Amino acid sequence: MQMEKVIFGAGCFWAVEVTFRLIQGVSEAICGYSGGHVKDPTYSNVCTGKTGHAEVVQVEYDPDQVTYKALLDVFWNCHNPTTRNQQGLDVGSQYRSVIFFCTTEQEVTARSSMEELRLIRRWSEPIVTEILPASKFYRAEEYHQKYMERRSLMKNYDTE
To answer: pTM of the predicted model, to two decimals?
Structure first.
């Protein structure tokens, strides 16, 4: 089994991570930072918007169980790709919509997928998602990993 990776930025990485983690065939979804110019970024300096990094999720998957196209479909549906540097109340370049491809095939498929959505006018506004070659991925601090899962467990525990 040959695993593949792709990096998606779709706003705050907490919800994006859990969305991809739940997909059959995804072995890992890791919160992190990518696309910037600062080495070893931290959450606090990425939040300033001055590092160039986006909050991202590195997805490792088995292409025999889930296709890259299926992952792209999840990506397009888990956020609004028409808002530049913003998802909901989160504003700044660190929340931009971006696909960091790891292979030429991923790039071609991502661009084709985006063009299909443009042609069918899925959204009334233009898609602003960036499609870029993967740059260094920096794993986010441990307290960001599986954040939504841990938070949900704590909520259930607190209400019992």
So the answer is: 0.91
